[in-house]
Recover the amino acids of this structure.
């Protein structure tokens, strides 16, 4: 059992590491290394606790993440009005706080795990919003990666919820 657990841990480390390293390399090539790092910190830490849609295979996970990350790079290349970013961030954070954790049917959580996830989501969402507000007051162009991290987490939670609802799971529709 310990050997299987160790192999699983190494597999996850390699999977996550390859996604993060690929994102950092791509972000660096586009001159968006700081934006990439900020997005990864906000997105990954929140995603661990918020839950949401997951790919069925490691390859699907890698390419799904790269698709999400590519869309973030595109979003960060536009000059989005600051008030739009703030509104999107607040709406996304409120949804995440109210709905987390988005529980995958193949990975049910215990009541204690749900409580812990909700606490972490609350803290991480608030830290993200406070960080965005501080950057906003400094007239920084770095608010888009935080907005993107909150929005993408919100989107993945909704995709899981409504994909399960469409599959006929009535409890997922509530």
């Amino acid at each position: 059992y310990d050997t299987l657990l160790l192999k699983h841990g190494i597999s996850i480390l390699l999977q996550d590491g390859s996604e993060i390293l690929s994102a950092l390399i791509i972000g660096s090539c586009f001159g968006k290394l700081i934006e990439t790092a900020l997005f990864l910190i906000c997105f990954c830490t929140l995603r661990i606790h918020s839950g949401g849609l997951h790919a069925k295979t490691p390859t699907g996970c890698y390419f799904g993440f790269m698709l999400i990350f590519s869309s973030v790079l595109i979003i960060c290349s536009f000059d989005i009005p600051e008030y739009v970013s703030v509104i999107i961030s607040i709406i996304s954070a409120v949804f995440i706080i109210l709905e987390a954790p988005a529980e995958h049917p193949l990975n049910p959580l215990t009541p204690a795990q749900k409580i812990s996830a909700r606490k972490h989501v609350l803290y991480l969402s608030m830290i993200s919003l406070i960080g965005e507000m501080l950057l906003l007051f400094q007239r920084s162009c770095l608010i888009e990666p935080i907005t993107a991290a909150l929005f993408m987490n919100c989107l993945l939670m909704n995709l899981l919820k409504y994909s399960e609802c469409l599959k006929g799971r009535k409890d997922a529709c509530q």
